[in-house]
């Protein structure tokens, strides 16, 4: 089977992971220093939930195709991501001024998320027509890259979850 199974969904998913990684490292850690700002507690919780969902998506889609009723799970996770992103955008706007690189990168992430939703919608339609099972997928190096992205997302889930636990009861940041 060729890389990406002749389907651009895997490539767009990898691109999303790479863009999100840059956003987390550059914008959340280096520029905004979110894990150290008590005003970012809710944002850190949303990020931890999002990262857990993407860890599941990256790892789950790296090695399996989700047939039948299972096709609804990745679809539901991307639908939840839209809601989380919308709420995260509101929280960010209410609590801080986003640096220019973060605003620009969020545009690319939202565009890519739209592409992911369209491509997964097409894929899920095909998968839903099959008998319910998790079927092995072989994407070669792309599967390994998705696995690495999944492990990184899982690690950042813990990082942001711990930051939320530490920040949630702290008094607000000084102006």
Automatic annotation (TrEMBL):
Alphabetically ordered keywords of this record: Membrane, Transmembrane, Transmembrane helix
Membrane in keyword set: yes
Name recorded for this polypeptide: Diguanylate cyclase
Membrane-spanning parts: 72-91, 103-121, 141-158
Organism placement in taxonomy: Bacteria, Pseudomonadati, Pseudomonadota, Betaproteobacteria, Burkholderiales
Domain of life of the organism encoding this protein: Bacteria
